[in-house]
Design goal:
Length: 299
C-alpha cells in the first residue's frame, strides 16, 4: 500500500469471516490502484482475524473491542491517510471500475464533497432483488434527504467522500444504533454538494437478520436523527415540511409493526402521525388505520 494514498478504503468487520475476504478481494481487483485498505476488526469472536491475516501487507488491520458499526468506521477514519475515504461493509463488494469512476468524478468536480453510485441489491443466492438508483428530486439535496434518507444508493458501501469534510462533520454518530448512515449524509449535505454515478458499481447484500431489521433501534434512532438535525434545514423547511417527514417515518414503522403482528403498536404510530401532521399525512394515516382495524393485508 502507498504511504500517501489517494483513497482510504475503510471496512468494518464484526464476525465477518464468512464474507470479508470477498469484500477485500473486490477492492484489490479495482482498476484504480492508488488506495490503502483499512479493516477494523470490531471485537470479532469468529475466524475474522485469521481470514484477515491471509492478506498480509495488502491491508492494515485495526483491532478493537466491539463498539458497533459507527465506532468501527470512525476508527478507520482516524487512521485514514487518503484524500478520499471510501466505505465498504464487510458483506458487500465492488465492481472493478468503482473507485476509478468516483475518483474521476471528484477530481473533475471539486465542489462535490461526497458521491455514490447505483447499487445492485442481491440476495444470498446472488439473485438481483432491485437496482438502488440515484435520487431524483427537484428539492435541494439536504432537504430531500430529510424526506428520503435512504436515497443515497448503496449507502456506506457506495459512498466516497473527501476525508477532511468527513472529519469536520464529526464522522458517524456512535450514539445511534440505526440511521447512522443518513445522519452523516445529512450533515455532509449541509456543508457540501453530492453527486451520484448512474452505473451499478456496488453490490449490496440483503439477508435476514441484518442490522436494518432491528425495528426498535431503527425507529428510535431515525426519530432522534431527524430531531437533532432539524436546525440544518433552511428555515422555511423546519415547520410543516419537517413534521411531514417525521410523520412519513412513523407511517413506515406503522406498516412494519403491523406486518410483524403488533397491531397495538401500529395503531400508536398512526395516531402519532395524525397528531404530528394531520394535513400532510391525514389521508394516509386514515387509510392505514382502516387497514389495521379491518386486518387487511398491507403491502
Amino acid at each position: 500500500m502507498p504511504d500517501t494514498p489517494t483513497v482510504s478504503v475503510v471496512i468494518p468487520a464484526y464476525n465477518a469471516a464468512w464474507c470479508v475476504g470477498k469484500a477485500i478481494d473486490s477492492v484489490l481487483a479495482q482498476d484504480y490502484r492508488d488506495f490503502e485498505i483499512i479493516v477494523v476488526n470490531d471485537g470479532s469472536t469468529d475466524d475474522t482475524r485469521r481470514v484477515l491475516a491471509r492478506f498480509g501487507s495488502a491491508i492494515r488491520v485495526i483491532d478493537q473491542s466491539n463498539g458497533g458499526m459507527s465506532s468501527a468506521r470512525n476508527a478507520g477514519i482516524r487512521q485514514a491517510r487518503g484524500e478520499f475515504i471510501a466505505f465498504l461493509d464487510a458483506d458487500d463488494w465492488w465492481l472493478p471500475s468503482k473507485l476509478g469512476r468516483q475518483v474521476e468524478l471528484m477530481r473533475a468536480r471539486p465542489e462535490i464533497g461526497f458521491c455514490s453510485c447505483t447499487a445492485r441489491v442481491e440476495d444470498p443466492d446472488g439473485r438481483l432483488l432491485n437496482l438502488w438508483q440515484c435520487p431524483q428530486s427537484e428539492l435541494p439535496f439536504l432537504v430531500h434527504l430529510f424526506r428520503s434518507g435512504a436515497d443515497v444508493p448503496g449507502s456506506c458501501s457506495a459512498v466516497m467522500a473527501r476525508r477532511q469534510l468527513v472529519e469536520a462533520a464529526g464522522g458517524f454518530d456512535e450514539s445511534l444504533r440505526g440511521a447512522e448512515d443518513p445522519d452523516l449524509w445529512i450533515r455532509l449535505a449541509a456543508t457540501t454538494k453530492y453527486a451520484c454515478i448512474a452505473e451499478p458499481l456496488t453490490v449490496v447484500l440483503r439477508r435476514p437478520g441484518s442490522v436494518s431489521r432491528n425495528l426498535e433501534n431503527m425507529r428510535e434512532s431515525s426519530i432522534r436523527m431527524m430531531r437533532k438535525n432539524r436546525s440544518l434545514l433552511p428555515r422555511e423547511f423546519r415547520g410543516s415540511y419537517w413534521r411531514n417527514c417525521v410523520a412519513g417515518i412513523l407511517g413506515d414503522y406503522a406498516k412494519w409493526r403491523y406486518r410483524e403482528g403488533d397491531r397495538p403498536g401500529a395503531l400508536r404510530e398512526v395516531f402519532k402521525m395524525i397528531q404530528l401532521a394531520p394535513i400532510g399525512h391525514g389521508r394516509l394515516a386514515l387509510g392505514l388505520l382502516k387497514d389495521i382495524v379491518l386486518r387487511r393485508p398491507m403491502p
